[in-house]
Specification:
This protein is about 45% helix and about 20% strand. The chain is of the alpha+beta class. The protein has one domain. The strands form two sheets. The protein has a three-stranded antiparallel β-sheet, with no helix packed on it.
Length: about 110
């Protein structure tokens, strides 16, 4: 089951509340979810809004199985982000003496 669907079923949060969640709203160590804003669409634009009542701002306790699934999902996201960040930052390997011929062929340059 997708993490957002599992979170929706376990928390009872509204669609706008789920769409407005930030990572800092989730405390996997305590197993809680803080709801303090909602996302709404008005006149073709999206905006965040505060809950209408005090009871709209709340902290929801999550079942251990949902917390475990969210923790696993976050770990997968972090490892994927690290892999893509490392790939983007990977420096070009300079031509070593052993691979000089291969580099010359690839770049089209010749040894004089």
């Amino acid at each position: 089951m997708r993490p957002i669907v599992a979170l929706a079923l376990a928390s009872g949060a509204r669609r706008g509340e789920l769409l407005a969640l930030r990572l800092k709203d989730l405390n996997v160590d305590a197993g809680t979810l803080r709801v303090d804003r909602s996302l709404e669409q008005t006149k073709g634009r999206l905006r965040f809004k505060s809950p209408k009542t005090k009871r709209g701002r709340r902290t929801i306790s999550l079942p251990p199985a949902i917390v475990a699934g969210l923790r696993a999902h976050l770990l997968r996201q972090q490892s994927a982000a690290w892999r893509s960040a490392l790939a983007a930052q990977r420096p070009r390997i300079p031509c070593l003496r052993v691979t000089m011929v291969a580099c010359a062929r690839r770049t089209g340059s010749r040894k004089n």
